[in-house]
Amino acid sequence: MATRRTVATVVLRVAAAGLTAAMAGIHLHLWDSGYRDLATIGALFLFDGVVGCVLVVALLVTPTRWLGPVAAVTALFTAGSLGALFLSLTTGLFGFQESPDAELVRPTLGVETAGVIVLTTLGVATLSHHHFQHLPNPLHPPPSHPDPAPRHRPHLRHRPRK
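User: That's the sequence. What structure does it adopt?
Assistant: Structure tokens below.
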């Protein structure tokens, strides 16, 4: 039977993978739609799309024990992509100034913001669970077991008093 923590981890994992896939898909679509022709930015869009796809696979196949670090790396990658979008919308990035009205800017802001939040939550939840599962829980101490077998103590035999 699945625990609540297991179900929550699966839901967060799938949501994180979906948001990362959406981010990668947006970058690959925009790269294919003409961003490929932009100096530096084009290569970065392709890089974002390809690395995003690799991270989706990693999020889906990584054992739970190692999911925290993978989620953390993916959250940092997504935050970097979001930061680059903000720079391109405000001061410009590598000589490129993005318009807030450009294709997929608003959906990208939403997808990447949600991605950072979900990935961070997944990373913290799995890292803290792995860390704390090995610590004693004062609210639920381990059960005390009776001595499995009486110890044989030949030197402590009962001797009658004289």
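The longest helix spans residues 4-32.
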